[in-house]
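The pair is quoted verbatim underneath.

:::
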Amino acid sequence: MKKKQIIGVFAILILSTLLHSLYKLAPSFLTSIIAPVNESIWEHNKMILSAYILWTVIAHFIYPKQTYNLVFTNLLSSIACMVIVDLIFTPVYFYILKMQDNLPLTILIFTISIALAQWLGYYILKKPYNIKLERISFVIFIALIILFTYLSYNPLNFPIFKVY
């Protein structure tokens, strides 16, 4: 993995930590767009997505001369991270932890998920820069934020939307 991806792992961990309690500290519609409004598994996916979006903006300024598709790479990495977290954490939480909080294990699973997603992003970086792909990825990021916000206020009747 490249230095940029390792920095990304730590940045996303820090941003996620900051976002995790943002809504509790400042409850409003604006904070509900980017931060979890409850402790459901789904709301933590919104936190991951928002952390990746914020990291994309920050990385754009840190690494201004992009030779790769930054937005596209982080879009796919964020989706991969959400899938990995859901596939690993959900069964561990329900069947091993019996819905009891275990912060060290949760942080470990989250860190591994981000690292795997960043590793995937490293291989996506090898694709040549494409402005159309970047624009489409930007629109998809916005659509996902709108979808996640909608589902925060109108959750589906699935276990990942329930607050335990």
Remarks:
- Residues 3-161 form one domain.
- The longest helix spans residues 70-96.
- The chain has one domain: 3-161.
